[in-house]
Structure prediction request, 462 residues.
Amino acid sequence: MKFGGTSVADADSVTQVVDIVERHYLRDDEVAVVVSAQRGVTDQLIAIAEEIVKSQDTSTIGSFIHSLRVRHEKVLNQVAGDYASEACKEMENRLANLENILDAVHHLRELTPRSRDYIITFGERLNALVVCAAFRQRGIPSTVLDGCEAGIVTTPQHGEAMALPASDGRIKSRLLPLLTEMVPVVMGFMGCTENGIITTLGRSGSDYSAAILGAGIDADEIWIWTDVDGIMTSDPRVIDNARVLSTISYLEVMELSYFGAKVMHPRSIEPAMRKNILVRVKNTFNPDHPGTCIVHHEKRDTRVVKALTYIDKVALVSICGAQMIGRPGVAKMIFSALADAEVNVMMISQGSSEANITLIIDETQLNIAKVALTALVKQGMVREVTTNRDVCAVAVVGCGMAGARGTGGRIFTALGEAGINVMMISQGSSEVNISFVVDQADGQKAMRTLHDEFRLSEEDDE
Ligand code: ADP
Ligand code: ASP
Ligand code: MG
Prediction:
């Protein structure tokens, strides 16, 4: 069971978490718990690390450490009773450790990816102590493990590390034996390399941690507890009548999360899918709601389109030039230049005249991409590179689209009738996803138009 940032943000929510886990513990279910940082703490850790490496003023370090102490001790004192003082001592050790590292970053004027990763795991390091102490106070035996101790071995890509196959065996030998005796609390979001260097799994990475651990112990189920009733037909902050889906397939969730649906980390489905483990998404604050089951195969789906998502922090890059026509290797050159610059390409489309290739990339990588592609213009390989930041990508997702005729027609007719101009279209070969790009100002309208067109807010007999 993984509990996200809002599920562990204050004393009331931690009490809710303990209630949920206690219910399963008393039924003799074997449960391992993964916790995130309290909401907002990871953002604060990133901000302070980036600030103190440049700043002359070290007083911010002390006040930041103090604010973390106050915030976590407040919850601890409310939920941990007799176990609070022991946990407080350990918390002081961890805070002292963090303060020393921040001091070192300041004095060295150097924030390496490795030190940044270590710093940003402290939200989970502190919060796991609080949750573990709250379990003990309720009579549930518990201990705290960091992601590395729990057995998560990763690639050395700091900030976006991926689990290695060696994790399975380690997790089995380290975590599994604990389950018969206690409810271990594992700090989400982190693992370590073969050499023991701490890595992080990308923002929202605790979902991924839970899936890696669940696959490692061959869990019966992986439960993601969050602040909504399950996976919905769309982000409820964008579509107010978005509906909770009772089931959804691995592939559909992968497409949704890859295209920005914040409800799950994009990689968190892979480990579950590998072991065919059912994933449930449930609401910590409404535990009786059945939530969403994520499964391998949807039972015959009558719905063509299941859910929608969109990302607005993307940029469109168009590469044109008659030099490209009929010339083998131009696409290779473009993608190699981008890959060498570590730019991730999210969508691709190429006109049949071959005189134009259009790409969608993360907005933060636009400048790097421009530099890489301008070099090709200088070499005379392409004529022109144009870019547009004011766009957003919308993804229409549903396994039922595979083979269903006319879905594309319905999507683009509805958008046309709503007066929305589509700048680029791409359909993955899996046919689980049709995605397109519109002006940023039209993004939400496009979502609402399609949510209505496919009647996604209406219950069906799933
Ligand atoms: P946690 O802290 O539990 O990891 P997140 O904030 O990362 O929670 O993810 C839950 C949030 O994801 C929800 O509150 C909701 O606003 C957002 N969200 C975006 N798309 C969807 C979707 N399709 N279904 C459900 N929630 C979504
Ligand atoms: N605390 C981390 C983050 O904010 C991981 C997570 O919440 O899942 O990204
Ligand atoms: Mg999350």
